[in-house]
Amino acid sequence: MFTRREFLSIGAAGVAGAAVPFAAAAQTPKRGGTLTLRTWDPPHFDHILAHAYKTHVVISFTHSRLLRHRAGPAIRPGSFQLEGDLAESWQQTSDTTYVFKLRKGVRFHAKPPVNGRELTADDVRYTFERILTDKGSANVSMYRSIAKVEPVDRYTVRFTLKEPFAWFLEMIANPMSGAIIAKECVETFGDLRKPEAVVGTGPYTLEAYRPNVSLTLVRNPHYFVPSLPYIDRVEMLVDEDNASRISAFLGGKYDLGWEFPGMINRSDWIQLADTLKKRRPGLRTMEFPSNVVNDLALRTDRPPFQDARVRQAISLAIDRQGLIDATLEGVGVSNGPMPAALSDWALPLDQLGEGARYYRYDPAEARRLLAAAGHPNGLPASVCFSTYGSTLLVDSMTLVLKNLKDVGIDAKLDQREYGAYQATCRFGKFDSMVFGPLTPFVEPDSFLFGQYYTGEPRNRSHVNDPVLDDLLVKQRRTADVKARRDVIHQIQRHLALQQYYVHFPSGTYIAVWEGALKNYAPNLGYDYGGRLLAAWLDR
Length: 539
Hints:
Blueprint: H1 4-10, E1 34-39, H2 53-62, E2 67-69, E3 82-84, E4 87-94, E5 97-102, H3 121-133, E6 146-153, E7 156-161, H4 168-172, H5 183-189, E8 204-210, E9 214-219, E10 233-238, H6 242-250, H7 266-279, E11 284-289, E12 294-298, H8 308-317, H9 320-327, E13 332-333, H10 363-372, E14 379-385, H11 391-406, E15 409-415, H12 418-423, E16 433-437, H13 444-452, H14 466-476, H15 481-498, E17 501-503, E18 506-513, E19 517-518, H16 528-532, E20 536-537
Parallel strand pairs: 1-10, 14-15, 14-16
Antiparallel strand pairs: 2-3, 4-5, 5-7, 6-7, 8-9, 9-10, 11-18, 12-16, 12-17, 13-18, 19-20
Helix pairs in contact: 8-10, 13-14, 14-15
């Protein structure tokens, strides 16, 4: 086996010295083949109503957006450059007006009830009106700035905003929520939860869904980029047992790492490195910081979590370096109020001002703060939790419970099935605390506005802070990037003091993929379909 030092020296060079892939411009793409992924059973298929990567990963293959993020070996992980998807061009004509010109001849999948009809500007209007008006819309905060969406003609659509919104184009390109849908599907099925309602304009169609077993996607022969995709079939296999996943990967079954977003947990990778070197010598790897952050959400609208001293005590109780050592093989980074992976916007802990002290490990100070808040003997609590099928998350939860108990917080585990967890705790329906991962957004506004603004669906901690609300709106209205960054830094310092959520360290991804998969490179986020759109299999 590799020692830890030997393993880390491999870095981005990969197993057996394999180089990081280069841009494949000189290679001739090959059509055909089946790509096999370990993914997850979706709670349902309505991406507008879902706050679940298990849904959004599937939709990234089957649906298109107005804009998308560039993908491929030339794109650095963590970089998100915009390009047209359904839109062949776009322009901002005023501070609050954006006009998109659609590609002509784009057709929905040849499946009922849409049956291959052409996509028009009215479909764009319908999609965003549903996002804005459906009571169950999970990511409506991303689009609340929209005042109206108007088809100018069959292939032109105009968005008018209520106010300037500096992040508007990034939101339009977001793979979680910007997928364009057909009205017929909602009218026929009532919503888009059923697999039969998965009818988009994307590069793949959903051919089969076997609950808790697998999903099969097949190449859309009428995709609007005639040469794409190159791969004919994508098999998504559901496997919630880590030992089974390891065995399957060793046997060559999966073409990407089995954990989100195509990676392998560092502890598993170190354990398997020597075996993989022999059995799958063609594997490629790349390391980059993760933007997945676990946190403790707290009912700040109720005692005892209304008291900032209790929240600060909980943060002081957490041994972040201990978590890094125990669950991340010593390789990780502590996050402040924003993921450190978003390095253009996130403040290092030592720049968080007075609130920086609450990110250190200090059980004695935690107990003192609890006593000052009227809890000298500690307090009882519950923690809503779902495993997500992740051994790393389970290990982290175990250590968190121990850290809390060490300062007198007797937290009982309230473990729930993934679907039940998503429908309740992820939307603030819990008694005391929630522990789990935040959605790995790729820009700071979604981490901040949706999570903290008063009344937003993703405001799990029930934060109601008028000063913070004003700052959150201010950064959205600030077009100048430097000035916007200054406001976001001010927000982070405020949040460090208040500790409305207690944030935990992130790891470093070890993305792994089969060497026969060409013109592919990993990145942050849910957009598996986008990253595999122009990839091909050479085997």
